[in-house]
Q: What sequence folds into this?
């Protein structure tokens, strides 16, 4: 009797707490989306709201008429995400496979070189110096992809452990007995078996590339390679960016629905993630759990 | 004997050849780590130089500890260290408390669609970039159109100029950080809770223990290992900060620096906006070295408690 009462109370408390947090998590997105469909003058007069104030597609219309800037930025974001994720997964998987060979001479040293990157980092100034003065990546597409983002020691270790413990040695041995070389064995047998973990790591990597704005902040001086996050960042202070496509402060045109445009671009930037989220959330949760337990 | 030695030698030779493909596979990773993580280490020498980016590390003249002297003579060094450490301490305490609370709630209604909807929603902020988060925060805090000021005036109060009032930002940033990361940390604790054997709870039920007693007597004690581990790892990161949270969310507002400046934002501003390369390099060096000592210490402690959880 006491128990069932306690269980019911626990259930009630849990639902209350979780409902409240769900509300707090979702409301900001509701505000973002509602504002983008509001009338600009209404927002200025009455402020942001959970529900559209008036209804207007002006902001989206404005984005469409100035599509060259947003379209290009969107293209850059997609290119960065696709190239970055693919390159990252290939390098990570190949490296992790090498590190999974326990009998490889020097593998302990190589492993330490990977782990050390988690302990010590040179920081922004030296990294900035290397990429701008030695490799001259400034104002190229590559400066959005390469610095800091391509490899992550955590993912390397995660996939290495998968290769070591979750892939049956017998399968690899039998391929070798059949005369397959190391590369063939990796491409045909080992890599396909690692797809579950590779997909999870790939998802987290793709989200990271889609959302990254710091590399753009550090390494872009011009606007040519602005990604959608870059446009958003600049728009938060300079609304004219969209119309003249440059990072300069000029007089604000009064006809531009400035407030709602900002929100509309933010909606456009997060839309792909919001739409795809229900489908990938299972893998996203799995990725976080894997990262936490390290194996 | 002689022939045996020969075959052994042959085998060794073949083995060596058979390793080459593995080294080739690992080569891209090694090259990238060299460029991205090891070459910059030599740039740390900038901290002891009169920095000139064009002349490079070797070309810039030595100045000894001048950069550090200048840095620690200003208030900046104290402010950014204080902010970085205090924010991290707040996150370190609140993170587990809120994360475990949510994890226990999710676990108690486990199964069913509602728990999945809750979890999916609470995790959503974690999918956003800090730029998008800064837009959301702005919608609440903007002086004229923000929701907070609308609410304040609606209840007869007065609007606040949030982006000019540094004293309020510790609360704002801690709240935003928890809002952003609570879904993430709750998943980590939930996976630990799911690992607890059901038998403990069944035995407790038989003894007539209430749910609250089960939480305090079974769940929390068994989570101790995870909590300690997460805390020590957090202590190891004490000198690092989320650049986006402290730079973009306050919209890089000068009036707020006293409560929003962290080591990372200081290094960035020195390098990119103020052209204060020497002090920026010194602050970065300071962060790297102290950060390294903290991580290694944390790892040593973890190794003592549970060797398999240690990084190295």
A:
């Amino acid at each position: 009797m006491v128990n069932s009462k306690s269980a019911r109370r626990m259930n009630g408390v849990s639902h209350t707490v979780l409902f409240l947090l769900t509300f707090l998590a979702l409301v900001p997105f509701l505000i973002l989306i509602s504002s983008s469909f509001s009338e600009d003058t209404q927002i200025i007069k009455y402020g942001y709201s959970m529900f559209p104030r008036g209804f207007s597609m002006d902001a989206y219309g404005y984005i469409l008429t100035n599509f060259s800037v947003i379209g290009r930025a969107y293209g850059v974001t997609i290119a960065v995400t696709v190239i970055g994720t693919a390159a990252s997964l290939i390098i990570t998987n190949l490296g992790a496979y090498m590190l999974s060979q326990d009998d490889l001479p020097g593998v302990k040293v190589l492993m330490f070189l990977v782990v050390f990157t988690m302990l010590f980092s040179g920081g922004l100034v030296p990294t900035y110096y290397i990429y701008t003065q030695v490799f001259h990546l400034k104002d190229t597409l590559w400066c959005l992809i390469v610095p800091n983002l391509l490899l992550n020691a955590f993912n390397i270790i995660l996939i290495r452990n998968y290769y070591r413990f979750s892939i049956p040695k017998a399968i690899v041995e039998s391929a070798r007995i059949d005369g397959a070389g190391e590369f063939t064995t990796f491409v045909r047998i080992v890599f396909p078996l690692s797809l579950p973990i590779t997909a999870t790591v790939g998802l987290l990597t793709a989200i990271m590339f889609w959302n990254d704005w710091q590399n753009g902040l550090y390494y872009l001086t011009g606007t040519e390679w602005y990604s959608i996050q870059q446009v958003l960042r600049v728009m938060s202070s300079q609304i004219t960016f969209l119309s003249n496509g440059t990072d300069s402060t000029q007089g604000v045109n009064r006809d531009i629905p400035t407030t709602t445009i900002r929100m509309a671009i933010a909606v456009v930037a997060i839309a792909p993630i919001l739409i795809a989220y229900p489908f990938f959330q299972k893998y996203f949760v799995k990725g976080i759990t894997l990262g936490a337990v390290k194996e | 004997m002689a022939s045996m030695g020969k075959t052994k030698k042959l085998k060794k030779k073949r083995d060596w050849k058979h390793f080459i493909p593995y080294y080739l596979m690992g080569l891209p990773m090694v090259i990238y780590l060299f460029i991205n993580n090891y070459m910059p280490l030599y740039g740390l020498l900038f901290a002891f130089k009169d920095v000139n980016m064009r002349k490079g590390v070797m070309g810039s003249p030595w100045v000894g500890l001048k950069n550090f002297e200048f840095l620690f003579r200003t208030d900046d060094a104290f402010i950014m260290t204080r902010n970085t450490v205090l924010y991290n301490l707040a996150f370190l305490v609140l993170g587990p408390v809120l994360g475990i609370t949510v994890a226990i709630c999710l676990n108690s209604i486990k199964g069913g669609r509602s728990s999945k909807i809750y979890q999916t929603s609470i995790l959503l902020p974690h999918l956003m970039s800090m730029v998008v988060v800064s837009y959301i925060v702005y919608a609440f805090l903007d002086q004229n159109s923000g929701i907070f000021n609308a609410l304040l005036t609606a209840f007869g109060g007065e609007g606040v100029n949030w982006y000019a009032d540094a004293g309020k930002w510790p609360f704002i940033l801690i709240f935003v950080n928890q809002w952003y990361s609570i879904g993430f940390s709750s998943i980590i604790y939930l996976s630990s809770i799911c690992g607890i054997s059901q038998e403990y709870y069944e035995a407790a039920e038989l003894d007539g223990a209430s749910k609250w007693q089960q939480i305090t007597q079974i769940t929390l004690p068994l989570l101790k290992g995870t909590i300690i581990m997460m805390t020590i790892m957090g202590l190891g990161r004490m000198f690092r900060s989320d650049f986006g949270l402290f730079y973009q969310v306050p919209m890089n507002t000068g009036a707020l620096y006293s409560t929003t400046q962290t080591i990372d934002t200081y290094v960035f501003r020195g390098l990119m906006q103020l052209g204060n390369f020497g002090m920026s390099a010194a602050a970065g060096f300071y962060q790297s070295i102290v950060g390294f000592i903290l991580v290694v210490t944390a790892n040593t402690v973890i190794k003592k408690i549970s060797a398999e959880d240690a990084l190295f």
In short: Chain B touches chain A through 102 residues (CB under 8 Å).
